[in-house]
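In response to the reviewer comment on reproducibility (Comment 2.3), we provide here a single inverse folding case reported in full, input and output, so that an independent group could reproduce the run without further information from us. The structure tokens appear first.
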């Protein structure tokens, strides 16, 4: 039975063919992996330690997430037979983005079986709106090492959602399991550039990257399903992207969604996915081979998984959100699901461009009640509540020391017609004291300047003080960035060659077009 199972698995490995440059069909879509390891850039680094270093150099000071899997369930599970612990499979996840170049966070996963000389990769392509499967066979054989497309149908037998998969906690097959790590210790401290022994935090971080990658796959599918083709589709996608960008600019806080957009999304998704928006489950039940090994089993006798432990066994759908019921709730869930389409760097750049331009400004002020409390030495805490203006109220505290702002927090800030903001930080590095006026920079948890749910930007808060440092008046200005962003997106949707046409979310092209539109370009 074991031998038969092994023959089946090896046949599957043999079927893991690659499409060479001369194969029929369309040009394979370009992924981030293809960009950084293209032939004109030297191809895939060899040995594997060099590939690991090349990736870590890109994301420094962040580190790659890795795991060693001696008895796993991949197509290469028999590659090290019979010395499974002498050549464990290496898996790598990139969960940080480089300072420049293509986005890699949760978009690139690499596997390597040294004994088989095979490198496999799953890399996201904005051009196709999905993860692409790549492989290098005979890695290091002397011929040029290049990633080439793998046979997708074979890959999809296990990767049923078209994205990376991993086991459930506590990841018993990996070197996050102390019993497995102990059997790997003869390899030394590192194996082909990755740690041999690590705690549970390693596979946990890998698992989180896999979950986010599947979220990206869900976002990509949802972007193409949420709006129709034609002119109406372009306007729908402009409104939808505006809602997503306001959500991201606001630190992933809920935004107020236009009722017409909410109704359109609810109808489209209810028709496309009446049982709820879902993907195939990306987690396979964990198993701990050390238990059977300790009982005397040979590695080759337990490597073949069966039943629910076999990644080729069909898995249940994982429902991300319901598509029936309240339209506003469905729209909110859709916007949250779409958020991974943009990177943190995209949002930081958009924030800078919105903040750099002038526009319409609303100004508010409110008188305050306050109390000053000595904190020891030259430190004082000013606690304030400003609520005399029905259109603007604010409460919080600020600590001063040595004539400068040292810390502080806004507990609540409310503007008429907007969702109230809670627990904003006061950034001391961007705040100042000038005589009896405190200028306080308000920032969100993501480090960006505070914004309302509409996307409108808050200026620094001014507290005008009276002796003995009691706050008497709070003043703030609100800039209409939300309207400017909506206008830019609407203009893009009207173009004949619009980047908002139906199709995959081409992140770099779309974000570049938005920045150009905000700057007055074409």
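Designed residues, in position order:
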């Amino acid at each position: 039975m074991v031998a038969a199972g092994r023959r089946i698995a090896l046949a599957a490995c043999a079927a893991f063919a690659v499409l060479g440059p001369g194969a029929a069909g369309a040009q394979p879509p370009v992924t981030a992996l293809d960009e950084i390891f293209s032939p004109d850039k030297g191809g895939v680094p060899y040995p594997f330690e060099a590939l690991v270093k090349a990736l870590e150099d890109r994301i420094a000071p962040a580190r790659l997430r890795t795991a060693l899997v001696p008895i796993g369930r991949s197509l290469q599970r028999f590659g090290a037979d019979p010395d499974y612990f002498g050549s464990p499979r290496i898996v790598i996840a990139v969960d940080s983005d480089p300072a420049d170049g293509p986005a890699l966070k949760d978009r690139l996963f690499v596997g390597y079986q040294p004994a088989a000389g095979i490198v496999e990769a799953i890399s996201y392509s904005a051009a196709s709106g999905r993860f692409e499967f790549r492989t290098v066979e005979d890695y290091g054989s002397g011929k040029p090492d290049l990633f080439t497309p793998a046979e997708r149908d074979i890959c999809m037998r296990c990767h049923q959602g078209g994205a990376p998969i991993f086991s459930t906690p506590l990841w018993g097959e990996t070197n996050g399991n102390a019993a497995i790590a102990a059997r790997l210790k003869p390899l030394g401290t590192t194996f082909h550039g990755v740690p041999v022994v690590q705690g549970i935090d390693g596979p946990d971080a890998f698992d989180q990257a896999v979950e986010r990658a599947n979220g990206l796959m869900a976002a990509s599918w949802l972007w193409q399903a949420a709006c129709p083709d034609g002119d109406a589709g372009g306007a729908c996608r402009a409104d939808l992207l505006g809602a997503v960008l306001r959500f991201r600019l606001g630190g992933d806080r809920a935004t107020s969604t236009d009722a017409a957009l909410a109704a359109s999304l609810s109808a489209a998704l209810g028709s496309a996915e009446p049982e709820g928006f879902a993907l195939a489950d990306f987690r396979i039940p964990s198993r701990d081979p050390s238990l059977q090994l300790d009982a005397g089993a040979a590695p080759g006798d337990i490597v073949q998984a069966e039943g629910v432990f076999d990644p080729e066994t069909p898995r249940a759908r994982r429902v991300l959100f319901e598509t029936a019921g309240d339209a506003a709730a469905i729209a909110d869930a859709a916007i949250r699901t779409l958020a991974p389409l943009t990177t943190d760097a995209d949002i930081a750049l958009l924030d800078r461009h919105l903040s750099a331009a002038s526009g319409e400004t609303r100004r508010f002020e409110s008188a305050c009640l306050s109390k000053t409390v000595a904190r020891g030495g030259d430190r004082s805490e000013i606690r304030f509540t400003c609520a005399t203006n029905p259109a603007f109220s604010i409460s919080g505290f600020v600590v001063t020391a040595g004539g400068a702002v040292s810390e502080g927090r806004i507990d609540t800030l409310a503007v008429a017609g907007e969702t109230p903001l809670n627990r904003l930080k006061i950034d001391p590095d961007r705040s100042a004291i000038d005589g009896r006026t405190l200028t306080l920079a308000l920032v969100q948890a993501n480090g960006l300047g505070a914004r309302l749910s509409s996307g409108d930007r808050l200026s620094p808060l001014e507290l005008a003080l009276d002796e003995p440092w009691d706050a008497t008046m709070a003043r703030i200005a609100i800039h209409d960035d939300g309207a400017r962003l909506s206008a830019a997106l609407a203009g893009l949707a009207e173009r004949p060659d619009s980047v908002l046409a139906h199709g995959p979310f081409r992140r770099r092209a779309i974000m570049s077009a938005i920045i150009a539109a905000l700057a007055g370009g074409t």
